[in-house]
Amino acid sequence: MHRTVGALCEMASPHDINGQLIIATIQGNLMGARSAIAEGAQVNAVMDGSGLSPMLAVAIGGWVDIGRLLLATGRVDVNQQARDGVTPLYSAAKNAKIDVCRLLLREGKADVNKPAHDGCTPLYHAAMLGHVEVCRLLLTEGRADTNLANNVGATPLWIASHGGFTEVCRLLLAKGKADVNKAAANVGGTPLSIAALNGHIAVCQLLLTEGRVDANAADESGISPLHRATLSGHKSIIRLLLKHGARVTDAQCKDAEYAPFTNDPATAEYLARKRCGSCNMLAQTRACAQCRVVSYCSRECQKRHWKTHKPNCKIPTVD
Ligand SMILES: [Zn+2]
Ligand SMILES: [Zn+2]
Q1: Residues 31, 22 contacting (CB under 8 angstroms)
Q2: What's the mean pLDDT in 18-37?
Q3: Ligand 1 centre and the CA of 314: distance in Å?
Q4: Which ligand is nearest the CA of 294, by number?
Q5: What residues does the ion ligand 2 have nearby, CB within 5 Å?
Q6: CA distance 123 to 114
Q7: Does 51 fall in a domain?
Q8: CA 301 – ligand 1 centroid, Å
Q9: Is residue 57 assigned to a domain?
Q10: How far is the centre of ligand 1, averaged over its atoms, from the C-alpha of 93 (Å)?
Q11: Is 291 inside any structural domain?
């Protein structure tokens, strides 16, 4: 569906009336579309080469008036799928043609959740591209199901977190009651961990506060948000996760590639200071009140380590 309007018009035969309807629709020519319909053009006709139908052309071009004309015939299949399974609503959502989305939902009673062949719904695609207002419409007007995952297990919240679209994530949480912990089974990672990996701190903040995500929720490989954040070396996100109670050991992670490490010296040094002097866990540590040299993840760890630490625990002197 990435051909030019001109190329598409050449493919449609102007000698047949269905072709004329398609051409008029692609061009946004209301009068032309009206006369083609009056002459008997079929409103669900599909163009041979492109698989384009009149309503799909409406969705791509954003031609609300032609969309209304087609609906008024009472014969349009609003959920007609193109070869890739894309419906007119899907295409309008993808192309951010919000007025066409509204028309298809309100007057066409389009199936808001109908996925394309890859399992992506209109909401998923709008979330992937950060179309906030389209997402809002699909959620409020269409009551779209927020938690429908595509063929690789990714949900709209997952893909919006991946792309760093904070306002879309906020909408999905508030209006759609999105499942905040749903990991993309075949790609890996929860919404929080994928936002952490990609360095989207505002999304991480949102998921941790408004989404009440458990900072320690790991995916099926034991990879936690903190593991992913350390891999990509986003120090501010590491700090945020630790503040929200994230705690990991290197051994927790089944995938060695994700064990806490970083190539950034400053982050590596920061991480070293955040390791418990007793259990070596990476956590929000507190320094020994006396020497301030060793830090611990908990009172228990500090007590356990005291015998070892006592001989070295000296109040620092100023030379
Ligand atoms: Zn500890
Ligand atoms: Zn000490």
Answers
A1: no
A2: 96
A3: 21
A4: 2
A5: 288, 290-291, 313
A6: 10
A7: yes
A8: 5
A9: yes
A10: 49
A11: no
Query: Separation of 316 CA from ligand 2 center, angstroms?
Result: 10
CA of 273 to the centre of ligand 2 (A): 14
CA of 297 to the centre of ligand 1 (A): 4
Range of the domain at 66: 1-111
Q: For 146-183, how does the pLDDT look when each residue is reduced to its tens digit (9 = 90+)?
A: 999 999 999 999 999 999 999 999 999 998 788 898 88
DSSP one-letter string for the chain? ----HHHHHHHS-TTSHHHHHHHHHHTT-HHHHHHHHHTT--TT---TTT---HHHHHHHHT-HHHHHHHHHTT---TT---TT---HHHHHHHTT-HHHHHHHHHTS---TT---TTS--HHHHHHHTT-HHHHHHHHHTS---TT---TTS--HHHHHHHHT-HHHHHHHHHTT---TT---TTT---HHHHHHHTT-HHHHHHHHHTS---TT---TTS--HHHHHHHHT-HHHHHHHHHTT--B-GGG-SSGGGSS--S-HHHHHHHHHTB-TTT--BS--EE-TTTSSSEESSHHHHHHHHHHHGGG-------
Rounded CA separation 193/199 (Å): 10
pLDDT digits 0-9 by tens, 200-247:
999 999 999 999 999 998 887 788 899 888 888 888 999 999 999 999
Q: C-alpha distances in angstroms, 152 versus 157, 158, 159, 186?
A: 14, 11, 11, 5
Residue 216 to residue 20: CA distance in whole angstroms: 59
Kindly report the CATH number assigned to the domain that includes residue 61: 1.25.40.20
Question: What is residue 265's predicted lDDT score, i.e. its pLDDT?
Answer: 80
Count of structural domains, the chain: 1
Alpha carbon 302 to its chain's center: 41
Residue 288 CA to ligand 1 center (angstroms) comes to 12
Please check whether residue 262 lies inside any domain of the structure. no
Distance 282 CA to ligand 2 centre (A): 19
CA 98 remoteness from chain centre: 19
Q: In this structure, which ligand is nearest to the CA of 276?
A: 1
